[in-house]
Amino acid sequence: MLNQSISPRDVPPTPRSTAYPPVFSSWNMPSQPTAKQPNDATVTHLLDDDTPEEWSEEDIVFLHWRLLKEVDQLADPTAPLDEKIDILRWVFSEPEKDVKPFSFASCLRVVSSSPLSPLAYCGLVDTEEVRDYIRHSWRAWFQLSLKRYPDWVRDTVIRNPQWIETRLAKNPQWINEQIKRMSATGDLFA
After folding, report:
1. Confidence of residue 71 (pLDDT cuts 50, 70, 90)
2. Could you tell me the sign of the dihedral formed by the alpha carbons of 1, 32, 71, 158, in that order?
3. Percent with pLDDT over 90 in the chain
4. What's CA 77's distance to the chain center, in Å?
5. Greatest CA separation found in the chain?
6. DSSP character string of 78-124
7. What SS3 state is found at 165?
8. What is the pTM of this model?
9. CA neighbor of 148 nearest in space, from 82, 54, 101, 79
10. Residues whose CB falls within 8 Å of the CB of residue 114, separated by 6 or more in sequence, listed in order
11. 123 in the Ramachandran plot: left (φ > 0), alpha (ψ -120 to 50) or beta?
12. Is 28 helix (H, G, I), strand (E, B) or coil?
């Protein structure tokens, strides 16, 4: 889901078509943090130093924001299906997990109400309203993604999503490998 090898202030720009509407477009979320990016010497020093770095409160709020930005991938037809499934699991996790740090509900609460947030203050956001919006939109987003695949992939995802999910959990490239095999042999099960 989120590239964990990148520190919160070293997020490279992600060139991605914005032809799709971002999930949180009404929030006018900036595509990159507004804080000053560290220079190369600072990054090199941080990478060479084995001393654990203390995270500031601003860094923690920013991490919550970065996690929420991942939800935009749901509306992106080019985003990998396995990542979309992981994001949906995170968004619709068990209600008792909503109070845990970095849960979807916690990220919404922190980002919407912290004065250190990269967004303008908007007050507490109703998590269930956001989930309802995602719940009513995810099928259309998945259909746009599935249009890129052959008919047999679409049919399999619709008929047996758990089977596909299991395959993708074991190997995120499974669908691509099957498409390649089928195009070479003409038989999915060869």
Report:
1. very high
2. negative
3. 28
4. 13
5. 58
6. TS-HHHHHHHHHHHT--GGGGGSTTSHHHHHHHHHH-TTSSSPP---
7. helix
8. 0.65
9. 79
10. 61
11. left
12. coil
